[in-house]
Structure formats: structure tokens, C-alpha cells
Amino acid sequence: MTKASYTKDRKDIGKSVSQDEVDSFLRKVAATPARTNDRQGRLLFAMDATASREPTWDRASDIQVSMFNETADLGGLSVQLCFYRGFHEFEASAWCDRSDVLLRRMTRVRCAAGLTQISRILQHALDECARERVNALVFVGDCVEENPDRLADLAGRLGLMGVPVFVFQEGRDVQAEKTLRAIATLSGGAHCPFDATSPGMLRDLLSAVAVFAAGGRKAMEQFGQRRGGVVLQLTRQLGKE
């Protein structure tokens, strides 16, 4: 994987999340292949739980309720929570289809200092998919402290298995962005930055991916019509892609 392949799609980045970046992310969500069966959607929800992540973890705990609510009429959503923290600590919950169960699990977690373990998340997703179909992987983090080529290889393997990775990056670490964008691109997913001032945006974007996992592209278009805002802007552009 060359440096150019990481950066060829990158735009100049300012200090805050631009509407163009959000629109680009949502277009990529819409362009991912639609589900071909009517089974309950399966979403692997992974987060960095190292020391700096406590505020974002708390926000995500609140947001996940809306993910379940938005997918209830689509046959429901089954979510597995994964996270890393501390010294080589990695955990993955059982799959659950109730927001209150997931919320209890999330509120018991306390962040701890440590290095990133994104490769373990990607490998875990491959292992889960080998057992049963996974419709999408969401990763929320802010930095990368691993070999980019190793991560690119795992992301490419997820792409071959049809598991798109949707990366939500907090902050503006430029080096991390190169690798996180590559993970999204190689897996067939999308990358979008966010910051602490945009919890509503993060909620809508996470909900959009959850709806995609549960019902595919058409369901996400209908979600956009109901929700409006940045998701509605996506649905109005679909015919132009």
C-alpha cells in the first residue's frame, strides 16, 4: 500500500467538519451494496476505549438507543459491542437486539490508558463474519498507533467478504486520517470526521449506518425522508450519482 493510495481522495481539511465531508460520507453509505435477505441486520459496533475517549464513550452510549429505535420496523438490529483499552485488553460482547441490554454493557465500561488495537477489531470482524453474516462494522476512534499495511490488509479482506467499515474519526490527526480513510476505502465503507460540538450529527450518521445494516440502501433513503438534515441531503443526491 503506497502513500498515494491513502491520500488520493483526501480533500484539504479545516478545523471543523464541513458539510461536503458529511455529504461525501453519506453518499458512500448509499453506494454500498444493498442487503439481499430479510434477516435481522447485524452491526458490529467498535470503539477505542483508551483514556482520552471517556467523553465520546458517554455520548455513544446515549446515541445507540436511537440506532435500535430507527431499525425496529426493518426487522430489527443485532449489535455486538467491541472495544480495546489498557494493556492489550480487548473485549467483545454477545450479540444483542435490545438497546437497554447494550446500554448496560456500555455504562459498565471505564476507559483506560493504552495503545490502539484496531487490527484486533478488524480481525475479530473477519472471524465473526466467517461464522455468520455481518452487515457492517462501525469504528469510532481518534488515532492510529499500528502498522498501516497490516490494517490495510485486514480491511481489504473485509471488503472481499462484503463487510464495509464505517469509520468515525474524532479530531484532526492527519496521519491517523490517512490510515483510517484507507481502512474505509479498502473495505467498501466510508470515513467521516466529527468533533465534540456535533453530537446530533454523529447520532444521525450512526443511525444512517444502522438503518443500512438493517434494511439496505432503500431503507436508508426512507430514513432520510423522515429525519431530514444531513441524511435528507444525501437522499436528494442519490439520483445524481
Distance between the termini: 28 Å
Write down the CATH class. Alpha Beta
Q: Describe the global form.
A: globular
CATH fold descriptor? Rossmann fold
Secondary structure: elements and pairs:
Blueprint: H1 3-7, H2 19-31, E1 41-48, H3 54-71, E2 77-85, E3 89-92, H4 99-107, H5 118-131, E4 136-141, H6 148-160, E5 165-170, H7 174-187, E6 190-194, H8 199-227, H9 229-237
Parallel strand pairs: 1-2, 1-4, 4-5, 5-6
Antiparallel strand pairs: 2-3
Helix pairs in contact: 2-8, 2-9, 3-4, 3-8, 5-6, 6-7, 8-9
Please explain how this structure is put together.
The chain has a six-stranded mixed β-sheet with strand order 3-2-1-4-5-6, with helices on both faces. The N terminus and C terminus are likely disordered. It is globular, with a radius of gyration of 16 Å. The chain has nine helices and six strands, in the order ααβαββααβαβαβαα. It is α/β, with parallel strands linked by helices and 241 residues long. The longest helix is centred in the C-terminal third of the chain and has 29 residues. It has a single domain, classed as von Willebrand factor, type A domain (Rossmann fold, 3-Layer(aba) Sandwich).
Summary of the model, kept short:
The chain has helices at residues 3-7, 19-31, 54-71, 99-107, 118-131, 148-160, 174-187, 199-227, 229-237, and strands at 41-48, 77-85, 89-92, 136-141, 165-170, 190-194. By secondary structure, it is of the alpha/beta class. The protein has a six-stranded mixed β-sheet with strand order 3-2-1-4-5-6, sandwiched between helices.
